[in-house]
């Protein structure tokens, strides 16, 4: 009796959450209703000579994009408003149950002075899926992307020029439901902030050392590893501090009894090696539900397959296999890839108290990672004109 009732109520809540999700998707936020309120107190921008001090995510532009949703009324009109604090009750479920997800995108000032995004439709698709995984309301992906483009155009003067510099775009969805019940959000907020950035890591594009530690797991089948939700990152901070104390910049995340290689820090992980067939192969973990579908990851795969010069694989491989390949001299190079870092060469992996050096053909970076970075930058900064991956927004 009691268990049957509980299962029935859980099923009903699931249906209601899905209905809310579908209903929200067809109603906004609508770009045609976008309202713009300009700041009356613009902040000083970084001079070109000072842009090396930008760092990552430390400074923010004059405006932000905001849209609110309730189960009763759906999405309200989106607003571009002055950058400001958000006021929420302490009972809001985002603070208690981690009902929050976000995206990481960039806008680039090209060699021609124009402002470009990079494959933004993939970010909207991933944010949509992340919201669905957390039972946050859906949204019209194309409409919200238009709103983001308008925000970027509004604050385009903040975008620093030069390769490696960009405007980081952080769309974020949160539950604002003010009651403590655990369930699908009855109210939500979708906002986007902008931050001019330089190199993601303090060492810039220098090789990083990874700690492969079997004590910690980033994600598991059936979890939220393929959603970009805050809880995935919160659990990585303590292991990251341990890695730093051991002289490593990031964690190499392993999973399961076979120590399956998954991701590196907040990046997707690539190995370029000679495989068991004696062929050159670029391999990365498959999208099996534990891996975030990175936009840079997809772009690296697309570029490499277009070149057609070596095998490109999305498959499972494990740390003992990688260790043996490193010791046998079969690994050509290793790198991470992500929106924030773009491409980050790996110089060593610490595993079972042993430091395994990774070859770097060009001292600080591998030949393939350097080629990938150049090709991506050429697209992002307009050296390759009118590329379909890089729509112009200003």
Description:
By secondary structure, this protein is of the alpha+beta class. Helix content is 27%, strand content 26%. The chain is built from nine helices and 18 strands. Strands 1, 2, 3, 4, 5, 6, 7, 8 and 9 form a nine-stranded mixed beta sheet that branches. A six-stranded mixed β-barrel has the order 10-11-12-13-16-17, surrounded by four helices. A hairpin with a 3-residue loop joins β16 (331-338) and β17 (342-351). α3 packs across α4 (141-154). The longest helix is centred in the first third of the chain and has 24 residues, at 2-25. It starts with a helix and ends in a 14-residue tail after the last helix.
Helix/strand layout:
Blueprint: H1 2-25, E1 35-36, E2 63-70, E3 74-75, E4 79-82, H2 94-97, E5 100-102, E6 105-109, E7 115-117, H3 120-133, H4 141-154, E8 166-175, E9 187-197, E10 208-212, H5 230-234, H6 237-245, E11 250-255, E12 260-264, E13 267-274, E14 280-284, H7 295-307, E15 311-314, H8 319-327, E16 331-338, E17 342-351, E18 354-357, H9 367-380
Parallel strand pairs: 1-4, 10-11, 10-17, 14-15
Antiparallel strand pairs: 2-3, 2-4, 2-9, 5-8, 6-7, 6-8, 8-9, 11-12, 12-13, 13-14, 13-16, 16-17, 17-18
Helix pairs in contact: 3-4
């Amino acid at each position: 009796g009691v268990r049957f009732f509980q299962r029935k109520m859980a099923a009903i809540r699931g249906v209601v959450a899905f209905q809310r999700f579908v209903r929200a998707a067809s109603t906004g936020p609508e770009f045609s209703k976008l309202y713009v309120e300009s700041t009356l107190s613009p902040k000083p921008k970084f001079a070109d000579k000072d842009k090396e001090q930008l760092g990552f995510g430390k400074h923010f532009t004059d405006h932000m994009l905001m849209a609110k949703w309730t189960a009763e009324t759906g999405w309200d009109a989106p607003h571009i408003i002055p950058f400001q604090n958000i006021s929420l009750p302490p009972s809001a479920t985002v603070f208690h149950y981690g009902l929050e997800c976000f995206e990481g995108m960039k806008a680039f000032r090209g060699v021609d002075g124009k402002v470009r995004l990079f494959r933004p439709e993939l970010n909207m698709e991933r944010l949509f899926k992340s919201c669905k995984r957390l039972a946050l309301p859906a949204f019209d992906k194309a409409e919200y992307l238009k709103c983001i483009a308008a925000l970027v155009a509004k604050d385009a003067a903040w975008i620093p020029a030069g390769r490696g510099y960009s405007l980081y775009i952080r769309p974020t969805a949160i539950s604002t439901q003010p009651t403590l019940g655990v369930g699908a959000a009855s109210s939500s907020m979708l906002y986007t902030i902008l931050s001019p950035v330089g190199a993601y890591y303090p060492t810039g594009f220098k090789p990083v050392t990874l700690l492969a530690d079997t004590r910690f797991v980033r994600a598991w089948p059936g979890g939220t590893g393929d959603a970009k939700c805050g809880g995935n990152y919160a659990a990585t901070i303590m292991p990251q501090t341990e890695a730093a104390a051991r002289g490593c910049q990031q964690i190499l995340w392993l999973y399961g009894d076979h120590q399956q290689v998954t991701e590196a820090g907040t990046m997707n992980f690539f190995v370029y090696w000679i495989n068991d067939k004696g062929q050159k192969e670029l391999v990365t973990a498959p999208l099996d539900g534990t891996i975030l579908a990175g936009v840079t990851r997809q772009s690296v795969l697309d570029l490499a397959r277009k070149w057609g010069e070596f095998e490109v694989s999305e498959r499972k491989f494990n740390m003992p296999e990688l260790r043996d390949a490193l010791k046998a001299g079969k690994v050509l190079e290793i790198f991470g890839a992500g929106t924030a870092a773009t491409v980050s060469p790996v110089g060593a992996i610490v595993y079972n108290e042993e430091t395994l050096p990774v070859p770097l053909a060009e001292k600080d970076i591998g030949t393939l990672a350097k080629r990938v970075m150049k090709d991506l930058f050429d697209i992002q900064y307009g050296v390759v004109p009118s590329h379909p991956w890089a729509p112009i927004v200003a």
